TrEMBL record:
This is Negative regulator of flagellin synthesis. Keywords: Bacterial flagellum biogenesis, Cell projection, Cilium, Flagellum, Repressor, Transcription, Transcription regulation. Residues 34-85 form the Anti-sigma-28 factor FlgM C-terminal domain. Residues 23-34 have a biased composition (Basic and acidic residues). SUPFAM superfamilies: Anti-sigma factor FlgM. GO terms for biological process: bacterial-type flagellum organization; negative regulation of DNA-templated transcription. Belongs to the FlgM family. It comes from Paenibacillus crassostreae. The keyword Thylakoid does not apply. Residues 1-34 are annotated as: Disordered.
Length: 94
C-alpha cells in the first residue's frame, strides 16, 4: 500500500509556494510609505496668511488692553448671556 503519491507532494508544495508568495507581497506593501510634499509657493502663502492674521489679532488685543486699562471697555451683556446660556442649559438637564 502506497501512502505518499508523487502527485500529492506536488500539491502540498504548490500550497506552500502560494503562502510564501503572499508573504512576500505583504512585505513589499508594508515597505511602501505615503509621502506628502508642500510646494514652496504654498509655504509662502501659508506664512503670509499667518503674518496677516497675527498682526490683526495683535492689534485687536492691544486695543482691548488699552480699553481695559483706561476703564472704557464695556461688556455686552446680551452676548455674554448668549455664550453662558448653553452651559446653564446643559447643567440643568443633568
Amino acid at each position: 500500500m502506497k501512502i505518499n503519491e508523487t502527485g500529492r507532494v506536488g500539491a502540498i508544495n504548490s500550497y506552500q509556494r502560494n503562502i510564501e508568495a503572499g508573504r512576500q507581497n505583504e512585505d513589499k506593501k508594508s515597505r511602501r510609505k505615503d509621502e506628502v510634499t508642500i510646494s514652496a509657493e504654498a509655504m509662502e502663502m501659508l506664512q503670509a496668511t499667518e503674518r496677516s492674521s497675527n498682526s490683526e489679532r495683535a492689534g485687536q488685543i492691544q486695543d482691548l488692553k488699552q480699553q481695559v486699562t483706561s476703564g472704557t471697555y464695556q461688556v455686552d451683556s446680551s452676548k455674554l448671556a448668549e455664550k453662558l446660556l448653553p452651559y446653564f442649559k446643559q447643567n440643568s438637564e443633568n
